[in-house]
Design brief:
Length: 293
Amino acid sequence: MTSPALPRSLASIAALPQADLKSIFVTDPDRLGKLVLTQGPIRFDWSKTHLTDDVLAGFLKLADEQGFAAQRDALFAGEAVNNSEGRAAEHPAERGEGNADSVAHAKMLHQRMRGLIDAIEAGALGDIRHILHIGIGGSALGPKLIVDALDGDGVRYDVAIVSNVDGTALERAVEGFDPNATLIAIASKTFTTSETMLNAASAINWMVEAGVDDPYGKVIALTAAPDKAMEWGVDETRILPFAESVGGRYSLWSSIGFPAALALGWDAFESLLEGAAAMDRHFRLSPQAKMRR
Ligand SMILES: O=P(O)(O)OC[C@H]1O[C@](O)(CO)[C@@H](O)[C@@H]1O
């Protein structure tokens, strides 16, 4: 709930004199020292923004008034901070940070994902060279970002990600894919999203038309609703669940990241989780006034 103090505090920050970039470097020559944060391999530079000591002090006061520190603690404790759904928001647990039970559960599910990846690499599902990832919104954008960003020599499988229900999107995605050597990853937290289920059925048809022996045997489900995936026809051994408390837009860190973990390798996926965990720790442990350092 927004406190009545919020508009007042924001208005007082907005009313502060707007400094121009050239002059704030003259009046505040130590800006680089104060407004650059190096965290692992990432360098954040806020020195070339309108932020001044007064504006920052205003935001810190505002954060205090809004009970920011207590809210942050509640997030990492696994309390129900997602008010609209009445549940926790536990994506940090996927990275090893947060409520101990949730962290242990996420670790166990990651081990399950790793086991399936090892089995695929060992040929348990036949000769696999291509991954067709089907999902929409948060169930597609995270893996797409990672695969696009890290695509290169180290990528062991061709990955195509399809969200659009226009049939040509699927046709284009599988251009050059051998249907017999393709794995279909159906990514849906609810396993009911109509675009995803339609594309999944079309992908199965594509395999059937190409004469693939057991198309359902090439399907992996990435979902928080394993029962729905089973009803749809996915064998339990190829279902990679994740917790309900992981929101769609943050699900990359869960089994939704499967195509990235398979294509880039488990070590790369683990490094991604570790990098995110370092930022979680920074966010959780930095005193508010030092957040930017
Ligand atoms: O993962 P699902 O359940 O298929 O939902 C897909 C997307 O649709 C939304 O529910 C709404 O856009 C997103 O939160 C989610 O990422």
